[in-house]
Amino acid sequence: MTLNITVDLSKYHDGRLDEQLANSNVHVDSVILQTLHDFPRWENQGALLNYAPLGFDAIDGAYKNAATAAYYGVYHLAWQLFWSPPKLPNITIREFDDFLRPELKNKIVLTYPNDDDAVLFAFDLILQRHGIEWLDALLAQNPRWVRGTGTAVTLILTPNRTEAATFTSFTGFAPIPGSNYSFPTQTQFVSWPQTAAILKDARHPEGAKLLHSFVLSPEFQQMRGWPVRHDVPVADNFSQLPLKDIPSTNPAAFGRFMADRGRVERLRFFLEDRIGSAQGLSPLVDDF
């Protein structure tokens, strides 16, 4: 079987799908996106196929439309506190306040929150806990702002770069030489279920059904880290607690944040006023 995968930002994918729907020319079979607020809208438009893949019943009820099976979370993502011990010797980053330490001045790299809603939600959670004073102190650290969550990691792992720490990226759970990560316990961190749906007018619906059942299989779920299925435990060699046992995150909260577009836009432009508009070629290109 040949699988054709198009990788881009969810905020661009959804607009392209909207165009296909408007022109009655759908050539996408399956979408797996971060823009969780799009799925109820597409369902209301009658654009999604009601299909419950294997494992659907075990998915957390907050991640899906249980009545219709039009969409559902398929794997978890989360932002880590990520840093380079070779660049920051004798420093362990455990909380967001650690980014205010004098040793990190001019060494922080962050994704523009006004360019990525999941990063924006991280700032929302931090500001709820620590207030504007924390943001002022962070900006005094002179962080470097980049487009794309992968660029921050690339800079940190590049030996001749000064950038050494971020809280706007996810690298997975496998060890990466020259790096370390943690999750905060005193402040909520962002986690969410990347969500999937099959288009009602998909040209290859059976292939899409097979893909979704594979992604929800116990083997794939354990390989990803935190399963979205409550009947699949984390792998025996997994270094983290099950997500449901971590009080400092709520993966269902991101969907509620995304659904409140007024709140999202107000925060986006509040932060853009403080840090400037996103600069760079593309979040998919390491532009440095």
Automatic annotation (TrEMBL):
Keywords: Signal
Gene3D superfamilies: Periplasmic binding protein-like II
Domain of life, per lineage: Eukaryota
Name of the molecule in the record: ABC-type Fe3+ transport system
